[in-house]
Amino acid sequence: MKTLFKKTLIITIALGAIGFFGYFLWKYMYKSKAGSPNVVFDFIQNSNPFEFKQNEEKNINFTLSTENHEYKISAIDLYFVFDLNNKNLLDFIEFNAWRHEEDIQSQPVSYFDEVLIQKVSLSDKYNKSKILRITAVTKKQDDQLSPSIIGSLKFKANSINGSSSIFLLNDEKEIDMKNQIVGITKTSNNYFYLLPSNSMGYTINSDSICKDDKDVCGVNASCSNNTCSCNNGFYNCDGNWNNGCESNKSCLSITPSPTPTPTNIPVPRNPTNSPTPTRRPIPNPTLTPTITSTPTPTNIPVPRNPTNSPTPINTPTPTTTPAPESVTLNLKLKFQGILKKPTSTDKMNVKVKLGGRQSADPKIVTFTSDNNGVWSGSVNFNVTTGSGYLVYIKGPKHLQKKICDPLPTETVPATYHCGQGKITLSAGNNNLDFSGIFLSSGDLPNQDGVSDSYDLSLVRNNLGQRDDGALRLADINLDGVVNTQDYSAIIQALAVRTDEE
Q: How far apart are CA 499 and CA 367, in angstroms?
């Protein structure tokens, strides 16, 4: 009886332990996207397609809402695709956003304190479509944040008719253009998972609407029954009423006229020129046997090839690779936000590696700050001496910087960029002063080579903290407190985004 009771007790304890262990793994170890709060994106579709008149400015609005309105939004980094397949229908003007509760018509207060990036670029990856990137953050206190916001994208239509669509890029495989939304959650998560969203179609039509007694229809045109129309004998062939009816010829008679001219030009040339080329090739077959039969042209290159071939083959053989030597780099660095000797610590571990002429594995070096915030440290490599080297520097809370010059400078902080290595290294000591440029912050622990919403959330969620854990993670300028200066530094880093390679 006792034996049976013991066996039952052991089995019960084992099953309980397995169940608890499985729950622990699910809750803490295998957090997937399902563990992040969801955000729903929707275009506000008063009409679809959305209609523009030529040269008209309009806002395309959208909503961002967290699930159950439990979580609050503090920063966004969004990518929109529009004017698909190299169309040039719309020009982007500006972005704004408001709390969802506020009425857009009453000109509410902008939700985001800083719109860091609102930039349009063409993407070869998406068939020359336009990519609009919007990066914005708010510095409001938690109780002033909102779980739902309305975003507004203002566009101006160009003077052409056409149709296309706009959508939020939401490709799971996309790395360089990845949407991110940051906010305050009830868990340790600081990022939201963006659900797949809808798209918005739009069209641009000729603006032929007018009002009587107002000259808005352009030259050679008039307004009748609130509609622009051309005067007798004139035509609006480009569909743009800003320049009125610009042609005194029928649009149908204008467009076909240039097309036959290029096709007709070569027609008379081909019959006249065709006999001459056909007659010239005739003697060619008769000439070819005379050329091949004569031994003189075939013998001329023969003595030249054997006499010249040994010289280029023998020249590279005596080259020898120089042996590596001990090379010491004595470096001086300057980090973004640190303008004097830090109050919390004057030591910093920095990763240094070589590239260009010869690569060398990275090494972690301890740097020490002077009173002016210039950090000094030395590192040794065994490499061949010579020119063409470049140096990679990465601080503990910083993006990696590629440096090609022995004395780099910049006019605007953290804007230095370079291509080919121009640093010459010799055996022994090499003094390299990189303090003329600032190394950008942005990649906070644990580092992944990218400055993104995770790094931004680390600073924001530790604002005002002075404990060692918070300082280790988010005190960028090393002043002993996580404050708005660290927040500003991490915001600027979003424009740089990734390590330089």
A: 20
Judged on CB neighbours under 10 Å (0-12, 13-18, 19+), 428 is: exposed
- Two tokens, residue 445: 């622990």
Residue in this structure with the two tokens 């003189």, named with its chain if needed: 296
Non-local CB neighbours of 339 within 8 Å, separated by 6+ positions: 372, 373
SS3 193: strand
Structure tokens given for 145: 């944040």
Peptide bond into 446 cis (omega under 30): yes
Do residues 169 and 77 touch, judged by C-beta distance below 8 A?
no
| Residue 141 contacts residue 127 (beta carbons within 8 Å) | no
Alpha-helical regions (H) of 265-300: 266-273, 275-279, 283-293, 295-299
134, with CB counted inside 10 A (0-12, 13-18, 19+), is: buried
* Cβ–Cβ under 8 Å, residues 347 and 366: yes
Q: Hey, what's the torsion of the CAs at 28, 34, 36, 41, to 10 degrees? A: 180
User: Which one, of 28, 37, 398, 30, lies nearest residue 182 by Cα?
Assistant: 37
Supply the pTM of this predicted model. Answer: 0.51
| Beta-sheet strand order (sheet of 148-157) | 90-99, 148-157, 57-66, 38-43, 193-194
Domains of the chain are 38-204 (2.60.40.680), 206-258 (no CATH), 325-493 (2.60.40.4130)
Tell me the one-letter amino acid at 208: S
Token pair of 386 as six digits? 């010579």
Q: What is the largest CA-CA distance in the chain?
A: 116
Q: Which residues of 309-337 are buried (b: 16+ CB within 10 A; e: fewer)?
A: eeeeeeeeeeeeeeeeeebbbebbbbbbb
Q: Regarding predicted confidence, which is higher, 335 or 87? A: 335
CB atoms within 10 A of CB 359: 12
Quick one: pLDDT at residue 456?
82
Percentage helix, strand, coil for the chain under 3-state DSSP, each rounded to 5: 25, 35, 40
Q: Is 144 left (phi over 0), alpha (psi -120 to 50) or beta?
A: alpha
pLDDT, tens only, 397-429: 999 999 999 999 998 788 899 989 999 999 999
Dump strand ranges (E) for 284-427.
325-334, 347-356, 360-369, 374-383, 386-394, 401-403, 423-425
- Count the alpha carbons within 13 Å of 501 in the hemisphere toward its beta carbon: 4
Rama region for 462: left / alpha / beta (φ>0; ψ in -120 to 50; rest): alpha
Return the DSSP state at 232.
Answer: T
pLDDT in tens, 11-44: 555 555 444 334 332 333 233 344 567 889 999 8
